[in-house]
Amino acid sequence: MGNLLGRSGRYLRMLRRLAVHTLSRELMFRGNFLVKVTVEVLWLAILLVFYKVVFARTNQLAGWDEPQYLFFVGCFFALNGLIEMLFLDNCNEFAELVRTGDLDGLLLKPVDEQFLITCRKFDWGCAPNVLMGAGVMALALYDMGWQVSLLRVGLFVLTFAGGVALAYSFMLMLTSVSVWMVRNQSLMEMWWLFSSLARYPREIFSGRLAEPIGMFFTFVLPILVVVNVPANVMVRALDPFMVGLVFASSAIALWVSRRFFLYALDSYRSASS
Amino acid sequence: MPIIEAQGLAKTYRVAQKKAGLAGAFKSLFRREYREVKAVSGVSFTIEPGEMVAFLGPNGAGKTTTLKMLSGLIHPTSGQARVLDHVPWNRDDAFRRQFSLVMGQKNQLWWDLPAGDSFQLHREIYSIAPAEFQATLGELTELLGVEHLTKQAVRELSLGERMKMELIAALLHRPRLLLLDEPTIGLDVVAQAKILEFLRDYHARRGVTVLLTSHYMRDVEALCDRVLVINHGRLIYDGPLAGVIERFSESKLVKLRFETHAPEELSEFGDVARKDGPLAELKVSRSRVAAVLAAVLERYVVVDVSVEEPPLEDVISRVFQEAEPAHDAA
Which of A68, A266, B152, B280 has the fewest CB atoms within 10 Å, i.e. the most exposed one? Predict the structure, then answer.
């Protein structure tokens, strides 16, 4: 137990150091940083205006009323922002590390390879997304006159973490393929597909053609549960089966993606010097 | 107990082949052909603690591939190795804490930040106690004369300064084994000399085991008593540095200084390597040195004479040139 705590403390200290380093680096290029933050703020503003226009003409969207949907959008924005801040840049850079052989330097460090490769750099330009997402969620809860429920808050935090774990595992699997493909530009396209699926309520997949797709992306490749379940837990009906599905699928996905990542690293050839 | 033990270490790569042109590119989309490249073929050697050993070979001989297997970066196709009493490619943390690999062509520091920031990260990664970290950092920066540069962004440092910072980062955790892959590549003579002097001093102080690859014989002569020569993935020599010349050079250099101009007919005695006024240098096969000297001294008035081994640089370069075309290994 003491050993585990010591190990966790060491990794947390490393994470803090990496976070500080990357922030120092971002601030050295503050023009780039400001443009990035501005674009993200505009992107959220456009999204909110769009849904405002939609809800001016209807009371419900796939069974979600306006404050509920606002909460869903905030949840997506926060979760997506967190993933992009912590992992997307690192995973995207992995193929380049493989191609140039710069991965060598990381593999030689006495640290878990998955940690160092996927958490090395923080993209601080995405940090405002997490805050804005949290702000939108708070605003939505205020709008609907939400009554505080510790059970719902606790389950929201856990399913939100499960959603992050699922998204991270998905990204890690895609990243690992770079060891064989060397050039892996498809990662961004696949991530775009992932976030496009995750950003809408599961209920939009209704009808003879869409329903099987919705089922596939809920139970086989559970992308649709990533945002849907935490948002549902907080502002709609609490479905224990879906909560269990998030916990089980995130645990399995984390295990499978780690095994696959380590298997891929075993095939690493390093680049010629 | 040896610090490095390699037994029949071999690595074969499967390399995709593509015919030239667009048709070849389309064909390779559906049916890709592969060729097997033997980068390292059954290399065996041991290195004892505290040794400084040079690993020599032409480009593509398998030096870097061997270093990468010994550091655990890649798995061998066959063979065994134990480094610091660990199987390197298991990459145990306990193993990785005890060695460093410095590659002259790779930058491991954070490019946009001062080297001091990267050193702090190393402190966390290797769990170095603050007092020990400060003491080691102070010692290393002083030895390399870079105390004033640790707060400057790495990208603003010269190549020589960057290599010094790379060495500091590699030594902060006081490794028992240092693997150096072309550490002076691209450096000017002054920077090279400083790095070599540092490595010599550091080895004397700490007794670290060093395995070095370099194309500069100056590095090898300055640091190593023992060399491993590898060619086509096979170890062709393992022994003292002086023995390389004996093993690969059949001739010696006879240096002569005549009273007046060096005579024209010197080529009768051997290959004339140099002729400049009264000075001349003859390459003579080892077995004929005594006879040639006697004949020259009998026929001409010689003011000064010496018999020397040919420069290591020349011997090694001849060994490399005589090699068949190198394959694609690192």
Answer: A266
CA distance linking residue B305 with residue B280, whole number of Å: 10
Average pLDDT over residues A234-255: 95
- How many domains would you assign to chain A? 1
Distance of alpha carbon A102 from alpha carbon A270, whole angstroms:
8
Chain B nearest-CA distance from A119, in A, is 14
- Asked whether residue A271 is assigned to any structural domain, the reply reads no
Does the ipTM surpass 0.85? no
Instruction: Judge whether residue B107 has pLDDT over 90.
Output: no
Assess if residue A74 is contained within a domain: yes
Domains in chain B with CATH codes: 4-9+41-246 (3.40.50.300), 250-308 (3.30.70)
B29 has pLDDT over 90? no
Q: Which chain B residues have a beta carbon less than 8 Å from that of A113? A: 91
Evaluate whether residue A273 is within a structural domain.
no
Cβ contact B110:A21 at 8 Å: yes
Q: Which residues of B touch A107 (CB under 8 A)?
A: 72-73, 91
Residues 6+ apart with CB under 8 A from A102: A96, B106
The mean pLDDT of chain A is 89
Q: Note whether A107 contacts B97, CB cutoff 8 Å.
A: no
